[in-house]
Amino acid sequence: MGKILLSLLLLATNTYGQNTLAFDQGTASPKADLSQITWMEGHWKGEAFGGVIEEIWSPPLGGSMMFSFKLVVDGAVNFYELGHIRQLDETLVFELKHFGDDLKGWEEKNEVQRFQFIKAEGNRLYFDGFTFEKVSATEINIYGLVHQGEKEEEIKFNYKKQ
User: Fold this and answer.
1) CB contact set of 35 (below 8 Å; sequence gap of 6+)
2) Which CATH number covers residue 86?
3) Nearest-CA neighbor of 144 among 72, 69, 89?
4) Per-residue DSSP letter, 8
5) In the predicted model, is pLDDT for residue 3 greater than 70?
6) Phi and psi dihedrals of 40, rounded to 5?
7) Mean pLDDT to the nearest integer, 134-151
8) 47: burial class by Cβ within 10 Å (0-12, 13-18, 19+)?
9) Residue 76's domain spans which residues?
10) How confident is the model at residue 22 (pLDDT cuts 50, 70, 90)?
11) Which element (helix H / strand E) includes 124?
12) Domain DUF6265, which positions (predicted)?
């Protein structure tokens, strides 16, 4: 199931979803800093992919906010993600890597999934194929544009603060 989820999590870079945007490769990311997304800090849980999803986000330190993600299906870990949103030059970038339940990486050793910052608008920050939305102090949504074979789909991850 892990390899199926990997293909689900790979982004389509030139497609727009209802809540996600695609980065125009001919443009530069606008100025942004971590203060715009500090509300992600904390321990979050929700449901997706037939199981429980959990994300833990650190406060900003050293120019980044790191996170861990875990999917648990039928009482067993299915896969993990580790990553960060980091300050790069005068903008932000969202980067992550996937790991199986045995912590063996899915991407090549030096490969990282990278999503360019597009814009901040209201209670949302848009990256290439991902949108982080603050619903309230205790609820967030993360929208991810994923593809499954030839089909592209936007997935909503709803989390409650623990």
Assistant:
1) 60
2) 2.40.128
3) 69
4) H
5) no
6) -75, -15
7) 91
8) exposed
9) 2-161
10) very high
11) strand 124-127
12) 39-143
Distance CA 31, CA 120 (A): 10
**Residues whose CB is less than 8 angstroms from the CB of residue 18 and which lie 6 or more positions away in sequence, other chains included:** 154
Amino acid letter, residue 143: Y
Q: Which two tokens stand for residue 24?
A: 């125009």
Give residue 12's pLDDT.
Answer: 36
**Number of neighbouring beta carbons within 10 Å of residue 13:** 13
Number of domains in the chain: 1
CA dihedral sign of residues 111, 113, 119, 121: negative
Return the amino acid letter for 101: D
pLDDT beyond 80 at 152: yes
Check the CA dihedral 142-146-152-155 and report its sign.
Answer: negative
Tokens of 39: 């509300």
What's the rounded Cα separation, in Å, for the pair 107 and 136? 34
**Per-residue pLDDT averaged across 49-71, rounded?**
98
Q: Which of 136, 137, 115, 135 is nearest to 126 (CA)?
A: 115
